Structure formats: C-alpha cells, structure tokens
Amino acid sequence: MKKFVSISLSLMVLLSLLGVSNVKVSAQTHVTDISSSDPLAVKVNYLISKGIITGYPDGTFRPDNKVTRREAAVVLGKTFSLNGTKRKTSFKDVRSSDYASGYIQSAYEKGFLNGYGDGTYRPDHYMTRSEMSYLLAKAFNFSATKNYYFIDVNPFAHYYRVINKLANNGITVGYTDDTFRPTRKVTRGEFAIFTARALNSSFRVIKDQPSPETRIVKADWLNVRKGPSTSYSSTGGLEDGSRVNYYFKTGDWAFVKGAGYEGFVHTAYLGMPLSIINGKVITLDPGHGHTDPGAIANGLVEKEVVLSVSKKLRAYLENAGAKVVMTRTDDSRYPSLSERVWIAENSNSDTFISVHANKHSSEDAHGTETYYNYYSPNGSDARKLAEYIQNRLYKAIDTSNRGVKHGNFQVIRDNYVPGVLVELGFISNPEDAKKLASDVYREKAAKAIYLGILDYYKYK
Ligand SMILES: [Zn+2]
Description:
35% of the residues lie in helices and 17% in strands. By secondary structure, the chain is α/β, with parallel strands linked by helices.
C-alpha cells in the first residue's frame, strides 16, 4: 500500500509538471524559484508560454532536478506537435497505458530517438547530456560545417558528431572550463535552455573556438591515438619534426591534426607553440646610412639610433621564427630608396618596416608617429599595420601619440609589400632624445614594434 501511494504521488507530480494529465494545472507564467534576472527565466517563460513545459503545482520549476527519458520524449513531442495519443510502442518496457507512450512512439517513428539494443527505452532512466544532444540534433535536423572541441568530448566518440552539431548551431558553449560533460545527467534548467535556443534563434550563443597552435613533434616516432591514454589504439605515427595543429589538451594529452593524421599525442613530445609569424618574411629598413646620417641633434645621429633599434627588433622577430631581411646591417653603405623597395619585393616579404627618428626646427615638437601610404598597392593592410604598431609604440616608450598618418615616402609608396615608416620620436626634442639615446628605451621600442607586428598578423 505504501509503495502504491508513493508511486501514484510521484506520478501525480510528473503528470502535472508535464501538463499532460487530466488533473487540471493552471499554467505557471512565472515560476517562483528562478529570479527574473536569471537568464534562465526568459527561456523557461518562453517555453511555458508555448505550452511545451509547465512548472510544478506549487509554482516552482526546480531547474536542478534531472530529466527522465520519458519526460524528454514528452517535451520533444510537444515541441513538434507529435501525436501524443497513448498507444502500443516498439519498446517492451513502455506499455500503451504509459501516459507518454504516444509521444515516445511518435518520436521513435520520426527517428528522433532510439532505444537500447535489448529493445528497451528505459523511460525512467535519467537522460544524459550526450543523449539529449542526439535527440535535439536529430529532431531539429542540425548540421555542422565546422569542428568545435570540448576537452572532455573525444572526437572519436560516437556522441562527438551530435554535440558538435549543437555547438555549430548556437545551442551550447559548454562549461567555462571547456568541458561539455557528456555523461552528466541533464537538468530541467539545462534542457529548457537547450530547447529554447533550438526553437528561437534569439537565444542562441556563439562558442569561442580559438585557432589551433602550431607545434613541432620532438620524438623519433610519436603514436597518434584514438583517446587520451596509451590504452587507446594507435591511428598512426608522426615523425620527428612533423608540424601539427594543436586544438586542445586533456590531462597530458593533446588532440592534434597533421601529416594526414588526427588524434591524441602525449604533450611531452611536442615543442613549444610556434608564433603566428613563424615563417613570415619581414623586411626591416633602418633609415639612412653611411653618407646619409639623417637627423642630427642632441648628440644623436638618426642612422645610428634606427640601426640599433632595428637590430633589436630583428632579434625579437627571429626568435619568433620569422625570416628577417635587412636593407642594411651596418653603416658601410647607403642603399638607395628604390633598392630598399626592391629588397622587400624581391625577398617576397609579407611586411616592410622602415625605422626613422624625426627632427624639427623647433625643439618643442615631440612624439611618435607611424606612416603608411593610401595609394600604395596594399594601402589598407599597411594602414592596419601602422595602427597596430603605433598603438603599441607610443605607450611603451611613453611619448605623445601623434597618430597614424598618410605619408608620401617612396619606400612605402612604391612598394607592393604592405609597408610602414615609423618615426620613433624627435631627436630634436630633449626629452625624446634622452629616450632615443637609452638602450633600455631602444629595447622597449623594438619590443613594441614587434608586438604591433604580432597584433597585425593576428588580425590578418
Ligand atoms: Zn629619417
């Protein structure tokens, strides 16, 4: 008797929460246990207003309660207005008298859900987040064009495909620790969020998927496996020096793609991430030289200052894997302006940086500015490059910001390579000159230009 009471009570609660019983429950327009400022509230209210879900008779929604497979089928059935008439089902454990039999059978016939291999549906089992993903991906016929990754969703797992479809369609971004927790039981709150997003695009979200890092294999032979441990089978091997794209890490294992393979490799055998400018060719042009000293003031000679800064900049760029071409490395000769352009173009450079320092008849003139040329063949890229460099440079050396300007200089005007001309500061201004004389500030300037170049390549 006692057992019977508890069963019928739980059935009552179930029936009323799903709003499918003959026990009349007034639809709760506002549930009492979700604050109106909670982003969940608007989604729950949306689904209630569409008659897809209801709260409990006491006015609560209980968002942390789990969802049974029976309840999930009913929500789906209502979402798609499936035939909910109780009837015989294809599952041996769902009787026709089950209040959800109609929805379960209709959803099954539509191909939205599957049972288990033994012919059961297990309606009282709680639904996992991966099962829910399968259900929604099927029911909403989601497709995927891009690969999104969660650190606990193995791309070789059967549920990867459906979870990826949800991510592609703005239904999930996972948790803040980059997990999706596929085996966790889905809660009523989560199920409401996912269903609302699936139904209404204004609720959808965009998952951040950073571009992969490039890494080099540092082992004679590195096994690529189907999961993050040596117990998974190998799909192949990578040779020493192979270059791979590194997508995510779980424990000591990284999911990588490269050399025709994809899978998990142990991170101990991968080198450090390669910089975004690895392999880029960059021409550095220290202004003036030899017979042309450039500006002279306050004990400084421009050709020396800019050569010193350029050499420091070269070191930053080469450390990051860039190939640096210099228009001059010493003061032994003066390359003409057209020769400087030729060097950049002939080396197939990606960018061209000319380094200068300024002079004015008034010693009051001061500050940093960066030039590009509107009319140069790649003027818009050049402008971006100038903006990124200028934005880093004046802050790093604490000079006034004279901004990014169009300038009619031959080395950036007649150049197919996107180029800029940087004026570090005014040699003729005592304060700027003090910085330009200082090795510490030259280092800061070089690093800032380097970081600006990185910013530019990230933007590209
Ligand atoms: Zn100059």
